[in-house]
Structure formats: C-alpha cells, structure tokens
Amino acid sequence: MEETDREAVATAVQRVAGMLQRPDQLDKVEQYRRREARKKASVEARLKAAIQSQLDGVRTGLSQLHNALNDVKDIQQSLIDVNKDWRQSINTIENLKDVKDAVVQHSQLAAAVENLKNIFSVPEIVRETQDLIERGELLQAHRKLMDLECSRDNLMYEQYRMDSKNTHDMNLIHTYFGDMQKLSEELAKQLWMVVQRSLVTVRRDPTLLVSVVRIIEREEKIDRRMLDRKKQTGFIPPGRPKKWKEKMFNILERTVSTRIEGTQADTRESDKMWLVRHLEIIRKYVLDDLLVAKTLLDQCFPTHYDIFNKLLNMYHQALSTRMQELAAEDLEANEIVSLLTWVLNTYKSTEMMGNSELSPEVDVNSLNPLISQNVVDQLLSKYMSTLTSNIIGWLRKALETDKKDWIKETEPEADQDGYYQTTLPAIVFQMFEQNLQVAAQINEDLKTKVLLLCLQQMNSFLTRYKDEAQLYKEEHLKNRQYPQCYVQYMIAVINNCQTFKESIISLKRKYLKIEMEDTLSSSHTSMDATLDIIAKEGCSSLLDEVFMDLEPHLNELMTKKWLMGSNAVGTICVTVEDYFNDFAKIKKPYKKTMTIEAHRRVVVEYIRAIMLKRISFKNAEERKEGAERMIKEAEQFRFLFKKLAAGSGEDTEGLCDIIEAIAEVIKLTDPSLLYLEVSTLVSKYPDIRDDHIAALLTVRGDASRDMKQTIIETLDQGPSQPNPNYVPIFKEITVPTLTVPKLLK
C-alpha cells in the first residue's frame, strides 16, 4: 500500500507541475482544484458501481449453487427409487416370455396375412411384369417387381426374426420367389441397353431415359434402406445392395471406351492417312457427344449425378488410354507428328475441348495431359531420329536425281530472270519447309530442333555436293564432248549456290528466333564458305574450258607468225565473248567474279607468252611493230572486258595497262634510257622478278650481257614502293628454266 501511495503522490506531483508551468496559471488554481474534484467524484462513483455489480453477481452465483445442490439430491433419490423398482420387476419380465413369443408369432402371421394375396399371385405378377418389360413399359414393370421384392423381403425378415438359423424356410421362400430374380436381371438388361445408347436415346426418346434414371434412383433408395436395416437387425435380403447406379456408370465408362476404340476404320496397310482419319473421327465424335451431354443428357439426370462432368472424365480417361496405346505402336515420323499435334494442340483447341459451347463447364487448363511428358519426350526423340534418317535419305536421293539431270542432252531450265538452274534447291528447301511447318504445329522447341537438324544436314550435304561437282568436272575432262550440256549444267550448279544461300537466310529468318541466331553463326559461315568454294571451283572449271579452247591461239602469241599478222588475239576475243554469252546465265555476284578472273587470266597468259621468249626482236623496227601490236591487242582486251563487265562496276583498265607498260619497254629506241623504263615498270609492278626482267630484255634482243646485269643489279638495290591497290600478277608467271646467270652469258 505504501508503494502504491508513493506512486500516486508522484503522479499527482507530476500532474500539478504540468498544470502550473507559467505564472499566469496560478490564477486558475481554484479552477483546476474544482475540475480535479469533479473527476475524483466521478471515478469514485464508477468504482462503487463496479463493486456493487460484483457483489450482486456473487450473491446470484451462491443462490444458483444452492439450488443445484438441492436438485442433485433429488436426482440421487429418484435413481435410488428407479433401481429399487427395476429389481422388483425382474421376476415379472421373466413371467412375460410366453407373451413375447406370442407377440412375435402374431407379427409374423400378420405379415403373412398381409402378403397372402401377393404370395398366391406371384406367378401371375411375374407374367405381367415380363410382358411389361417386353413392351418396354419399364416403370410399370419395375413397380410390380418392387411389390414382389417387398413381399419376399418382409417374409424373409419375419422368418429371420423368428429363427435366423432356420435356413430351410429361408431357402423355401427364396425358391418360391426365384422367378423374381430373373425378372430383375431381365429388367437390368433393358436398362443397360438404354444406358449404352443414352446419347442416341436422349435425342429420340428422352422420356425413356428419364424412366431408366427414375428406376435406378428407386433401387438406390431401397439399397440404402436395406443397408440401414442390416445395421440395426443384421438382416439383408438376397441380391442387395444391387448398386445399379454404380453399374450404370461402369456401363457408361465401357461404352465410352468402346466408342473411342471403335473409331479406327483403317490400317496403315490400307490407308497411309489412317491415323489422321482416326484422330479426326475421335475429335468429331467426342465433341458431338459432349455437346449432347451438356445440352440434353444433363437434364435427364438428377443434379447430384453430375452426369456431364462424369462423362467428361470418362472421355478424357478413354482418350488418354487410347493415345497411350497409339504411342506404344511402331509409328512412322509423320504419324508421330499427327499424334503429338492432336494430343498437345487439337485436344485443347477450339475445335474440341476448347469449344465455346462447352464452356464454362469444360476448363481446358484443368485437364490433365493425355500422355505423360516422358512419353512425349520418347516420341519426340524417336521422331527426331527418324527424321534425321529421312532427311539424309531425301538429300541423297535429291542429289542423285540432280546428277542424272547433269548428263541430259537438253539445257537446264531457267528461272524468271533467265538464269540456269536445277530443281535441287527447290526440292531440298521445300522438304525442309514442310518438316518445319509440321514441327511448328507441335511446339516452338521442336521447330527449333528441326531447323537446327535441317541446317546441320545441309552442311554435310553441301560437302557431298562439292565433291559431286568436282567429279562431274573430272569426268568431263576425260571426254570433253560429254556431257553435251556440261557448260550449261555447271552454270546451273554455280547458280544453285546463290539460291542455296538465299534459301538458308530465308529459312532462318522465318523459323529461327533472333536470340538463337548466334548459335548458328558458325554453321552458317561454314555453309557459305562451302558454297563459295563450289561456285569458285565451278567458275574455275568453266574458265578452264575456255582456256583449253584458247590454248592453240595463246601458243601463237609472241611468235614469228604473230608478228607477221596472226589474228590470234581476235580469235581469243571472239571465243571468250562467245563463251560469255553462255556465262550471261550465271547469277551476279559469281558472273562478276568470273569476268574479273577471265580478264586476269587472259592478261596472265599474254604476259606468260612474252616471258616464254618465243621471239627475240632483231631490230628497232621489229620492236616497234611488236610493241604497237601489243598495245593494240591490249586495247582489244580492254574493249572486250569492258563490254563483258558492263554494269558490274569492274575496273577493266589496270590489267591491260601491264601489257602496255611492257610494250613501252620493248618499244624504247634509246638503250641508254632502258634502265629508267624498266625501273618504272618495276615500281608499278613490284612483284616482277629478275628472271622476268631478263626474259623481257631477251625479247627486246638488243640488250648486252653487261647491260642486263647492270640493270638487274641496280634494280635490286633500289627502293620499292608498291601500290597498295595492286594485285600481284607476275608471281603466277614462271619463266622457263634458264637461270639469270645463263641468260647473262
């Protein structure tokens, strides 16, 4: 208490200090005192009221406890009285045993009397019921059957109550009502026939289906009543519970399974599209059945049957079983795609379970997969394996077919722009396109895998294509008259390379995600490189063809015959132009490359003819005549290749300038200026070697041994400042085996 008083005083002091913080508040001391007095009085009043309320509650509780004690004493006394009376009545109960037996017997006799009419009329009722079943009047038949069963069950129950161990009488009753069991089975057959055809019956005669459902509901109620009586008495009539509701759902389940399995009308042997047809029939049947179940069947069954969802689950389970059976078969690649497309896409699409008329009862997101992911993965793995083998086979067959075209005696077809081509790129990429479209029907991941597979096999295929093109060239070289259209088909092979490039880019753009492009960059680069090699080798082989025809005319260059007025260069130009009329069917960038290469090779062969030292000019007049002829022929080449390269942007000037520069060295009349002219030539074309200079001076025919040696040695010491744009050409030209020292002798 002292501690409490001290806390109260401390609190009061703190409160007063809070009120009197300023001098002007001293004037309100009396006001503060009255306010606190009022608060104190209010608190005391509430405290008194609370204490009074507690006291009243305690008083009431004590009163109730006193009353309860008195009640307990009264009950205790009553129990004593009851116990006393019970003990006194035991003897009386034993004396009434005979009365009890009489009552039981009376009850049995009363039941027999009550069912006496039915007992005597059992055969007649059985016949009437049989007739009703045969006429299809199932409700009336079931009513009579119920009456018969009720009579039998009551008799058996009374017999059971009287003597449960008396099996003879029980069997006697059961035998007498034996035909009734056959009626029940016959009626059940009729019911199950209607249930099996319920989706048809509900459209033609829904009343019949409703009658069947009412009969099943009656039997369910009787089953429940008999089971309740069994719990109380231990007796249940034979054949109970019938569980007709459970049997009905089992029959529906078997019917659904049979309907799904029975949709396969064809086999692979009779129809390659058997699986597509099978799946389409399933789709149509299931959708139609579920729509009927939702709109019509659902109205014929009680709500608690939840018939639509039950049927939905049955169809889903039956489909799952069927799809697993199909997946376990030895399916071909196209059949695997058809199955997976149907399972993964069609099943939940608007064409089937996602149909707007089935919503909201059918939620496609809540449907379990028809086949497990493991089975899907196995099918996809098998599909990829089969597809790999198929693509390899298709590519090999396509190439073999294309090779047969190469030896035809007719020219290849041309595209809309007039460029020669074969059908190979179109066949290959049409095949790729078809497989990618099929894969895209399943999912994006498979589409990407198929694209990667196609490009991977394309890479290997191009290597074989390159080898076959090389063999084609080698076979032609054995007999240049065969094949007859070698040039045209080699042009088509070159053009195919460009078509392949464009098709690869198009395929990647259409089917490859942007984020996946980096993974294929190296493969794409490899394919481009292989295609460039094929095209380059093809162009080279065509130019070889040209230069084999030019060889006799090239051999005339820088000879006495040439100096006397041979038309070798004119023939060369005509031949090249004639070939390039065919080469006009080569696609651009390869045509441009080929024109440049032809120009370079013509110039190289011309310079090689000079370096072969077939002629050595005897005097200044011959040198002048030969040099002017070289300049004229360089101009012919320049004109020819300018014409051939029209529109390609090729610089046709530089190569022919080399011939003119050499001609200037040969044309020079003052030998003292020969070093300057040669040094100018070397500065322009730094890859020119000493043996080239020695051969050139030999062709001039007027350079002494000392002059040759001086010029070569001086040039070796001089600085070289090559033109960065110059493409070396002299390094390809080999001078005959005479060495420089021998030339100087």
From TrEMBL:
Keywords: Acetylation, Cell projection, Cytoplasm, Exocytosis, Golgi apparatus, Protein transport, Transport
GO molecular function, one term: SNARE binding
Compartments in which it is found: Cell projection, Growth cone; Cytoplasm, Perinuclear region; Golgi apparatus; Midbody
Gene3D superfamilies: 1.10.357.50, Exocyst complex component Sec6, C-terminal domain (1.10.357.70)
The keyword Protein transport belongs to this UniProt entry's keyword annotation: yes
Listed InterPro entries: EXOC3/Sec6, EXOC3/Sec6_C
Entry keyword annotation includes Secreted: no
GO cellular component: exocyst; Golgi apparatus; growth cone; membrane; midbody; perinuclear region of cytoplasm
Chief location: other
A single BP term in Gene Ontology: protein transport
Similarity-based family: Belongs to the SEC6 family.
Record function comment: Component of the exocyst complex involved in the docking of exocytic vesicles with fusion sites on the plasma membrane.
PANTHER family, per database record: EXOCYST COMPLEX COMPONENT 3 (PTHR21292:SF13), EXOCYST COMPLEX COMPONENT SEC6-RELATED (PTHR21292)
Assembly behavior: The exocyst complex is composed of EXOC1, EXOC2, EXOC3, EXOC4, EXOC5, EXOC6, EXOC7 and EXOC8. Interacts with EXOC3L1. Interacts with BIRC6/bruce. Interacts with MYRIP. Interacts with SLC6A9.
The protein, known as: Exocyst complex component 3
Species the sequence originates in: Pygoscelis adeliae (Adelie penguin)
